Amino acid sequence: MVRRRRSQAGLTLIELAIVLLIVGLLALMATPLTSSWGASADLHTAGGQLNQAYAHARAAALRNAGGAKGEEGAARIVLDPQVRELRVCTLAADNCQKVLWRSALPVGVELSVLGGAFPINLNNLGLLDAPVSVQLAKGGMTDVHILQ
Predict the structure, then answer these.
(1) How sure is the predictor about 69, in pLDDT bands with cuts at 50, 70 and 90?
(2) Contacts of 14 (CB under 8 A, 6+ apart)
(3) Is pLDDT of 94 > 90?
(4) What is the residue range of the signal peptide feature (predicted)?
């Protein structure tokens, strides 16, 4: 009696483990690339929020609801680090209690004024005393926005 061997179709456990190892290594190599995309997108979002805050502050300063005269401050951009939020308010002694505009910053993005600090004040003509450079940073990436 002659016995025939059955041919087996499929993968062995070792072949499957090798395929999973290769897929895992490829995913591991792609992680730094995709994380830099996320950091870049967050910096871009924060830069847009900063530009929006500046536009809203200029509009508020030109409306001059507080009645500032001459070169007096009329509006300001404030960074609240506790809730990670940019705010625009009129320049009064209320410590920014009446917020005209606000936006939460993306998680992990740090803002700092180069050569100065927040708040950024605008006079009743909607102008800054001098151009202001704001540095945005996240995950080793930086971007500098100049407000003028």
Answers:
(1) confident
(2) none
(3) no
(4) none
- The domain that holds 102 is classified in CATH as 3.55.40.10
Tokens of 16: 């499957």
d(CA 56, CA 90) in angstroms, rounded, equals 11
Residue 133 lies in a domain: yes
- Residue 1 maps to a domain: no
Alpha-carbon distance of 8 to 51, in angstroms, equals 65
Distance, in Å, from the CA atom of 121 to the CA atom of 110, rounded to the nearest integer, reads 20
Residue 108 lies in a domain: yes
Range of the domain at 80: 13-147
Cα separations (Å) of 38 from 24, 33, 106? 21, 9, 11
Using an 8 Å Cβ cutoff, are 74 and 64 in contact?
Answer: yes
Indicate the number of domains in the chain. 1
Q: Can you give the pLDDT at residue 124?
A: 87
* 3 inside domain: no
Phi, psi torsion values for 14, nearest 5 degrees? -70, -40
Nearest CA among 49, 117, 41 for reference residue 86? 49
